[in-house]
Amino acid sequence: MSELGVVRRRRSAVEVEKLVSEYEASGLTRQAFCVDRGLSVAALDKYRRRVQRRPRSGSGVLLPVEMVSPTAQDLSRAGGCDGVLFVELRGGRRIEVRRGFDAETLERLLTVLDRA
After folding, report:
1. Residue 22, CB half-sphere, CA atoms under 13 Å: how many?
2. Across the chain, which distance is largest between two alpha carbons, in Å?
3. How many Å from the N-terminal Cα to the C-terminal Cα in the chain?
4. Cα dihedral 5→30→46→113 (10° resolution)
5. What is the per-residue pLDDT across 2-48, written as a single tens digit (0 to 9) for each?
6. 55: pLDDT confidence band, cut at 50, 70 and 90?
7. Backbone torsions φ then ψ of 93, nearest 5 degrees
8. How far apart are CA 23 and CA 40, in angstroms?
9. DSSP state of 81
């Protein structure tokens, strides 16, 4: 049962994701961030677990993709093209993934780029 006079409100999934994103970008300790936001550390931890468990499917929006042949520069940089994927994003960001890549690291990278 909650304390008298304390009203607990539920945050939407969007609010939770925004809050977690703000915490991760803040550089603050969990305690300092929570004091600043009037939030308990336990609640922040719960929100972080919830966001991490949620499958990321982007925003549910399909974007056009253009398939192109690799340039000579791409091939020399990659040492051939067997098992290499290149993704070039708007704004000049480029991701190169080779055979045997660490999928977890790539997922974390994409999460950070989604927030940018």
Report:
1. 13
2. 70
3. 40
4. 130
5. 556 666 678 888 888 889 989 988 888 999 999 999 999 999 999 99
6. low
7. -65, 140
8. 13
9. S
Token look-up 């977890």 returns 104
**DSSP string computed for 35-69:** HHHT--HHHHHHHHHHHHHSPPBTBS--------P
Residue with the two structure tokens 């008298």: 4
Encoded tokens for 65? 């993709």
**Rounded to two decimals, what is the model's pTM?**
0.44
Residue with tokens 């927030």: 115
Residue carrying structure tokens 């719960």: 46
50: left (phi over 0), alpha (psi -120 to 50) or beta: alpha
3-state percent breakdown (helix, strand, coil) of the chain, nearest 5: 50, 10, 40
